[in-house]
Design goal:
Number of helices: 23
Protein name: Glypican-6 isoform X2
Strand content: under 5%
Structural class: mainly alpha
Membrane topology: Lipid-anchor; GPI-anchor
Organism: Microtus ochrogaster (Prairie vole)
Function: Cell surface proteoglycan.
Number of strands: 2
Radius of gyration: 39 Å
Strand order of the largest sheet: 1-2
Shape: rod-shaped
Family: Belongs to the glypican family.
Distance between the termini: 132 Å
């Protein structure tokens, strides 16, 4: 072929070969991408009308693309924002569970204390009248300390209850012996006989066991709800790493750049991206599940032997029964106290003329157990705890299943039934790599997200430690022990504020011991014996009235 013909034909053939490519470029317009991009709220000035060369792309495949550098940056930030929102939405259930149930339990408990205090005040005003009102601060202080303990105050329940009964004994001892004058030192000596003489019967021992273990369980349970709420709120606010952001952009918006805005990521592809981005959250799961298990155990205690409602509802009647025991045994108690602490000085004539029994209301009748529930069945606490338990069970494994929950969202992936027509990170085809296991160390070979497995997230580790500490407190509360006081109590048992009793049969804390009372001068006793004899007939008259009152009380049962 002559050279001049070749010179004409070769350029023409090159032109003809280039024509299909030009037609193909025209066919791959960016109109669909422009619509999807604009629907996200972005300006269309950044986006080309037709695909352009993709050498400028830093994340998406550097092939013909509908994305400019500005678009890739904006879509990368959009993918980060959407991921953060997805985690918050997906963890919404567990967060609202702890927020709402903490609020309900706290309101219930505070209302229970308020009602118990009001009930006691109303009952004692009717029953004891001015005698109670003149000494009401003893009972007000009891409820103040119980509230302070519940709200996290440094209160040792056993010591506080012992102090209450000692103070009550001091006040009552003066009321049943109005013919005597008692100094502060003498009353302090009286209080030393609280454990030995058991003036209130077995009520203080039983009430201490019930109150301590119920309050320990209730306070620890509400603290657990607080910790769960705080951990869930903190962990749900993720801060994706640069490697995670790159993987999110590649998964969610590189289809836009490839002109495939309607093609969603493959399900398994999504799982690997989420497992890489949420690797540290998954490591929280083990400690979280142990925490939930401990919460459920304490909840069972609250439904059963540690039911705070069955303790607080009849507390007014129980204390009143203790006062009645003191009235019935007052002569023996007074005699033993006088023997140990010495004979007190006679009171002035005006004060001794007033006797305590005249102030008691004979209409009061002792408590009948059938009149109000003393078990958890049917109580408000029972229903509340049952509801909380159901929600807690649903929150187990929430952090390790987070990737699966997110990738099931039809807004995110193409689903498991469309594995051939989904985005695999490069094109619309099946995703072939295997799915990674959960946790940070298992992401060493994650094909989608660069994860530094040698640097655990310190923030997540702090939440793990908070859960571990709370779980330990819950385990102690389950056994009736208050971990806050285990090492600070002066008692040899070292059990702190808790009794540790597993059932209603507990060993007696108060045994009769022959503790020597403060020494009293024998001459002083001899001098005061004549004064005591002069008051003896009056004291006998007073106690005759007491017996009449008690008889009337029995009649009104």
């Amino acid at each position: 072929m002559p050279s001049w013909i070749r010179a004409v034909i070769l350029p023409l053939s090159g032109l003809l070969l280039s024509l299909p490519a030009a037609a193909d470029v025209k066919a791959r317009s960016c109109n669909e991408v422009r619509q999807a991009y604009g629907a996200k709220g972005f300006s269309l000035t950044d986006i080309p009308y037709q695909e352009i060369a993709g050498e400028h792309l830093r994340i998406c495949p550097q092939e013909y693309t509908c994305c400019t550098t500005e678009m890739e940056d904006k879509l990368s930030q959009q993918s980060k924002l959407e991921f953060e929102n997805l985690v918050e939405e997906t963890s919404h259930f567990v967060r609202t569970t702890f927020v709402s149930r903490h609020k309900k339990f706290d309101e219930f408990f505070r209302e229970l204390l308020e009602n118990a205090e009001k009930s006691l005040n109303d009952m004692f005003v009717r029953t004891y009248g001015m005698l109670y009102m003149q000494n009401s601060e003893v009972f007000q202080d009891l409820f103040t300390e119980l509230k302070r303990y519940y709200t996290g105050g440094n209160v040792n329940l056993e010591d506080m209850l012992n102090d209450f009964w000692a103070r009550l004994l001091e006040r009552m001892f003066q009321l049943i012996n109005p013919q005597y004058h008692f100094s502060e030192d003498y009353l302090e000596c009286v209080s030393k006989y609280t454990d030995q003489l058991k003036p209130f019967g077995d009520v203080p021992r039983k009430l201490k066991i019930q109150v301590t273990r119920a309050f320990i369980a209730a306070r620890t349970f509400v603290q657990g709800l607080t910790v769960g709420r705080e951990v869930a709120n903190r962990v749900s606010k993720v801060s994706p790493t640069p490697g995670c952001i790159r993987a999110l952009m590649k998964m969610l918006y590189c289809p836009y750049c490839r002109g495939l805005p309607t093609v969603r990521p493959c399900n398994n592809y999504c799982l690997n991206v989420m497992k890489g981005c949420l690797a540290n959250q998954a490591d929280l799961d083990t400690e979280w599940n142990l925490f939930i298990d401990a919460m459920l155990l304490v909840a069972e205690r609250l439904e059963g032997p540690f039911n705070i409602e069955s303790v607080m509802d009849p507390i007014d009647v129980k204390i009143s029964e203790a006062i009645m025991n003191m009235q019935e045994n007052s002569m023996q108690v007074s005699a033993k106290v006088f023997q140990g602490c010495g004979q007190p000085k006679p009171a002035p004539a005006l004060r001794s003329a007033r006797s305590a029994p005249e102030n008691f209301n004979p209409r009061f009748r002792p408590y009948n157990p059938e009149e109000r529930p003393t078990t958890a069945a049917g109580t408000s606490l029972d229903r509340l705890v049952t509801d909380i338990k159901e929600k807690l069970k649903l929150s187990k494994k929430v952090w390790s299943t987070l990737p699966y929950t997110i990738c099931k969202d039809e807004r995110v992936t193409a689903g498991t039934s469309n594995e051939e027509e989904c985005w695999n990170g490069h094109s619309k085809a099946r995703y072939l790599p295997e799915i990674m296991n959960d946790g940070l160390t298992n992401q060493i070979n994650n094909p989608e997200v660069e994860v530094d497995i040698t640097r655990p997230d310190t923030f997540i580790r702090q939440q793990i430690m908070a859960l571990r500490v709370m779980t330990n407190k819950l385990k102690n509360a389950y056994n009736g022990n208050d971990v806050n006081f285990q090492d600070t109590s002066d008692e040899s048992s070292g059990s702190g504020s808790g009794s540790g009793c597993m059932d209603d049969v507990c060993p007696t804390e108060f045994e009769f011991v022959t503790t020597e009372a403060p020494a009293v001068d024998p001459d002083r006793r001899e001098e005061e014996s004549s004064a005591a004899a002069a008051q003896g007939s009056y004291s006998l008259l007073s106690w005759s009235l007491v017996c009449m009152v008690l008889a009337l009380q029995r009649l009104y049962r």
